[in-house]
Write a structure and sequence with these properties.
Number of strands: 0
Number of domains: 1
Strand content: under 5%
Shape: globular
Number of helices: 11
Structural class: mainly alpha
Radius of gyration: 16 Å
CATH topology: Hypothetical protein af1432
Distance between the termini: 13 Å
CATH architecture: Orthogonal Bundle
Largest sheet: none
Helix content: 55-70%
CATH superfamily: Hypothetical protein af1432
């Protein structure tokens, strides 16, 4: 049975997190496509899609001063504070009774395949597959999106940057993603995920 996205949480996201919605929608749609390409069932892919949509919800608990800025522009102590957001996201979702799988993926989506990630420094296949998939789509979506300190990279440049840091990623997932990302359907998905947040209807966009 599908885990529906809690209506109260939808309101929470739309009303208070508009600055992060575009990223969430893009990551969610890419994550679903990659999960299906990987061979996951409809139910598994859908759950990952929900996890991807809300993976940064913990940033609502961070100050407006921190949210939307790059780590490159933050003092060291504030970088550590920003690094808490996955655990905060986990706690928020637990409050809304999300599945253990969704909460685990959200908690661990900043783990790196080489063990250099957080919060637990997990290595390789100790990282759940859903979190490994979200790691790839989250990084890619961030690279092809405008940030306060830079313009968006084009798709090929974004992939090249990820190749340079490939030690952080599950290679099998990343190779699959590289094949997927140049398909016409995926390019259309990226285009359609670039939404106007003022006209946002999250349920229509994510079919939830």
């Amino acid at each position: 049975m599908k885990k529906e996205m809690n209506n109260e949480l939808i309101d929470y996201v739309v009303n208070d997190f508009k600055s992060g919605i575009k990223h969430g929608v893009l990551v969610a749609n890419l994550t679903y496509a990659l999960a299906k390409e990987y061979g996951m069932s409809e139910a598994e892919a859908y759950e990952l899609k929900v996890a991807a949509m809300v993976h940064d919800i913990g940033k609502l608990k961070l100050s407006e001063y921190l949210y939307g800025r790059t780590n490159n522009g933050l003092p060291e102590e504030e970088k550590k504070y920003m690094g808490m957001h996955s655990k905060i996201s986990y706690d928020v979702l637990k409050k809304y009774d999300y599945s253990d799988n969704i909460m685990e993926v959200v908690l661990l989506h900043h783990e790196c395949y080489d063990g250099s990630g957080y919060p637990d420094g997990l290595v390789g296949e100790d990282i759940p597959m859903g979190a490994r998939i979200l790691k790839v789509t989250d990084e890619f979506a961030a690279l092809i999106s405008d940030r306060p300190y830079r313009k968006a990279f084009d798709i090929d440049t974004a992939v090249s940057i990820m190749i340079d840091e490939v030690k952080n990623l599950d290679m099998k997932v990343f190779i699959l993603f590289q094949r997927l990302i140049h398909e016409e359907s995926t390019l259309e998905l990226i285009k359609n995920s670039r939404i106007d947040i003022d006209d946002l209807d999250i349920s229509d966009i994510l079919d939830i």
